């Protein structure tokens, strides 16, 4: 008998009909002889709608209250799902994050899990019942309800799978798995059968929201095999694990071992529209300036991504420093930098929220020269200007104009021969919001 953790995303439970459909799938897994723990997201776009609603009350909602508000979304779906499963003759019980033992720090809006003590979940499963857990939420040491950041239900699922020592963590969504690009933008994207934690980390960090970044970090740390698949089909999805190949057979001939381990050059192309760019113009080019700027930026709570500093013009001794950061962190960061103008003596601040970021990810990049040249060449051929560049061992990212981003993603996808030969990728549901 296996212990399976299944997570259903918002688009898989968007209305009563979908909830009943998912309930059938869960009941079938249970009847096949498995122990089942389910993590569920809020219905459809509920979380976004609740955020909009709060925004109509006040521009800056208190974080604690916002967390209480947002966690109500998952309470609705978990209870309805438990009712639907019970209706099919399988016993099911729903639990909030707090009841399920998901302990977090007290950072509202992006709390981190500090411990997982799923006693009640284990008890429920031992009684032969299905346990349904509200995704995306936990409780702090001061007994306040917290949320784990957008897409956090993935993290809840992986953390429970680790805490319960489950055999697999299945992430059910509205596409057939992890693709070589977002199928909503690139219909010719190809489903990836296997991807390593490292590559998935880079894809998730670069904007591929099919799996939340923290969920991948957690899966890697606790070695939880994750299967990303569609709740609308029975197709095998994408397996996210430690290596590309099957577990190495110690008796296999050396050559075969090598093929099993060989990484593809490119896993996929990710894109991100959630960032903006700030440029500090005319900064005196002397030791300590960058340190001071980024101290202040960090103090404003911004999670910066790319940084570019130009060579200073010899006759002025002044330079420009640009960096990207999430839209949401921009107001506080701009305010903090403005307050620094006199001290540092820079000329002005420029703010640009019309940027897009494209990232090409692949472990094989390390050992294959020419990947950057091919990427830049493809963007040139598509007439797309590159504004910023950053690289890691297995990723190259570029910033473009936001309205050129989709074309850039498609151009790069084709340039690296990632287009599928057999038909278009299916997007079963969801608004893409
Ligand atoms: P859920 O509601 O199930 O959590 P999400 O909207 O968070 O679903 O994630 C699924 C979506 O992620 C897909 O509908 C797709 O548009 C988007 N996506 C972005 N990049 C990729 C990718 N590389 N592979 C698959 N889906 C991707
Ligand atoms: N409902 C939350 C969100 O929309 C969590 C999740 O779906 O994973 O971000
Ligand atoms: Mg998600």
Descriptive key words:
433 residues, alpha/beta, eight-stranded mixed β-sheet, four-stranded antiparallel β-sheet, 13 helices, 24% strand, globular, binds adenosine-5'-diphosphate, binds aspartic acid, binds magnesium ion
How would you explain this protein's 3D organization?
With 433 residues, this protein is α/β, with parallel strands linked by helices. It is built from 13 helices and 20 strands. The strands form five sheets. An eight-stranded mixed β-sheet has the order 3-6-2-1-9-11-12-10, with helices on both faces. Helix 2 (46-57) packs antiparallel against helix 3 (63-87) and helix 6 (197-205) runs antiparallel to helix 7. The longest helix is centred in the first third of the chain and has 25 residues, at 63-87. It is globular and about 80 Å long. The chain starts with a strand and ends in an 18-residue tail after the last helix.
Produce the secondary structure layout.
Blueprint lengths: L2 E6 L7 H16 L3 E6 L5 H12 L5 H25 L4 E4 L6 E3 L8 E4 L2 H8 L3 E5 L2 E3 L5 E3 L5 H11 L4 E6 L20 E3 H9 L7 H10 L3 E5 L7 E4 L12 H8 L6 E5 L2 E10 L4 H11 L7 E3 L8 E9 L3 H9 L2 H4 L3 E5 L2 E7 L9 H11 L6 E5 L2 E7 L3 H11 L18
Parallel strand pairs: 1-2, 1-9, 2-6, 3-6, 9-11, 10-12
Antiparallel strand pairs: 4-5, 7-8, 11-12, 13-18, 14-16, 14-17, 15-16, 18-20, 19-20
Helix pairs in contact: 1-3, 2-3, 5-7, 6-7, 12-13
């Amino acid at each position: 008998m296996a212990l399976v953790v299944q997570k259903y995303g918002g688009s898989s439970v968007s209305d009563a009909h979908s909830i009943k459909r998912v309930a059938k799938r869960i009941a079938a897994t249970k009847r096949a002889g498995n122990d089942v723990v389910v993590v569920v997201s809020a219905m459809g776009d509920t979380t976004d709608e609740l955020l909009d609603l709060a925004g109509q009350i006040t521009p800056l909602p208190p974080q604690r209250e916002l967390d209480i508000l947002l966690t109500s979304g998952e309470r609705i779906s978990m209870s309805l799902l438990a009712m639907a499963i019970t209706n099919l003759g399988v016993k099911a019980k729903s639990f909030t994050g707090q009841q399920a033992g998901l302990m977090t720090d007290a950072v509202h809006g992006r709390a981190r899990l500090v411990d997982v003590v799923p006693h009640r979940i284990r008890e429920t499963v031992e009684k032969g019942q299905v346990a349904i857990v509200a995704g995306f939420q936990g409780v702090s040491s001061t007994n306040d309800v917290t949320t784990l950041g957008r897409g956090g239900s993935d993290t809840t699922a992986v953390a429970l799978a680790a805490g319960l020592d489950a055999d697999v963590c299945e992430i059910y969504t509205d596409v057939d798995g992890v693709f070589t690009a977002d199928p909503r933008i690139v219909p010719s994207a190809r489903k990836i059968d296997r991807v390593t934690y490292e590559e998935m980390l880079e894809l998730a960090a670069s904007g591929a929201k099919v799996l939340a970044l923290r969920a991948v970090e957690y899966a890697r740390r606790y070695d939880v095999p994750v299967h990303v698949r569609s709740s609308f089909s029975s197709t095998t999805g994408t397996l996210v694990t430690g290596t590309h190949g099957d577990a190495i057979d110690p008796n296999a001939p050396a050559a075969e071992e090598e093929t099993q381990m060989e990484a593809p050059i490119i896993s996929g192309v990710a894109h991100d529209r959630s960032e903006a760019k700030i440029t500090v113009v005319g900064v005196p080019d002397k030791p300590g300036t960058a340190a001071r700027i980024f101290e202040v930026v960090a103090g404003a709570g911004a999670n910066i991504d790319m940084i570019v500093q130009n060579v200073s013009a010899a006759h002025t001794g002044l330079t420009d420093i640009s960096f990207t950061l999430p839209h949401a962190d921009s107001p506080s960061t701009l305010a903090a930098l403005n307050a620094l103008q006199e001290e540092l003596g820079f000329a002005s601040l420029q703010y640009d929220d019309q940027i897009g970021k494209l990232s090409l990810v692949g472990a094989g990049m390390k050992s294959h020269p020419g990947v950057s040249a091919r990427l830049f060449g493809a963007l040139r051929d598509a007439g797309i200007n590159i504004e910023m560049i950053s690289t890691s061992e297995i990723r190259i990212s570029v910033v473009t104009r936001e309205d050129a981003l989709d074309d850039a993603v498609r151009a790069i996808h084709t340039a690296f021969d990632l287009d599928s030969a057999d038909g278009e990728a299916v997007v079963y549901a969801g608004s893409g919001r």
